[in-house]
Amino acid sequence: MVYFWTMEKLKYPVGRWIVPEKPGMDLISEWIAEIESTPATLQKLVQNLSADQWSATYRPESWTVLQLVHHLADSHINAYVRQKLAITGPTPIIIPYREEIWAELPDVSLDTVQDSIAILKSLHHRWVIFLKSLTEQQIRNKGYYHHGEGRMIMMEEAIGLYDWHCRHHLAHIRIALGLI
Asked: Do residues 170 and 46 make contact, with C-beta atoms less than 8 angstroms apart?
């Protein structure tokens, strides 16, 4: 089956992140479930890939499947730390990191991809335990100031953002592998 993909659809295959006005706790639970299931989904997608598949991209001048896997680990480590900081102290100021540079560093290699998958499995396990332990008051009233965005990001938004981030990059990998 041949699909016609616009550049916008290739860049944002699940759509752009849209901040919901006030998500219900049922929706937040669905977001947490997506965060929980992502490592297993990722493992199934990338098992037994060839070197060519690891270097496949989802659009011209995009990251490779390999870089996407490492990016998920890097990004989610940052997200977990940011969210724990938001819950455990005064409102932290978050400094963005240079994802595009991190994606080019020597640890982003085929030799270390299983390390990033293992990190995601362990990290998401702990992250979900943490997220499920939060009270509605913490989810609604705690957050962090994102210096790069120039605004507060409350926990309810941060959880939704990383649900989206999981789905977004899993879709990129499926496109790169010709699965959608």
From this structure: no
Q: What is the pLDDT of residues 46-59, one digit of tens each?
A: 999 999 999 999 99
* CA distances from residue 156 to 24, 134, 140, 163 in whole angstroms, order as listed: 9, 11, 6, 11
Cβ–Cβ under 8 Å, residues 74 and 99: yes
pLDDT confidence band for 2 (50 / 70 / 90):
very low
**Residue 157's closest CA among 8, 5, 31, 15?**
31
Task: Give the whole-angstrom CA distance, residue 103 versus residue 77.
Answer: 14
Q: What's phi and psi for 96, nearest 5 deg?
A: -65, 155
Q: Please, which contacts does 41-49 make with residues 24 or more away whose CB atoms are closer than 8 Å?
A: 41/170, 42/69, 42/72, 42/117, 42/120, 42/170, 42/173, 43/117, 43/121, 45/170, 45/173, 45/174, 45/177, 45/179, 46/113, 46/117, 46/173, 49/177
Tell me how far the alpha carbon of residue 98 is from its chain's centroid: 15
The DSSP-derived string for 40-53 is HHHHHHHTT--HHH
Q: 81: which 2 tokens?
A: 């730390």
- Judged by DSSP in three states, 64 sits in strand
- pLDDT given at position 102: 95
Percentage of the chain exceeding pLDDT 90: 91
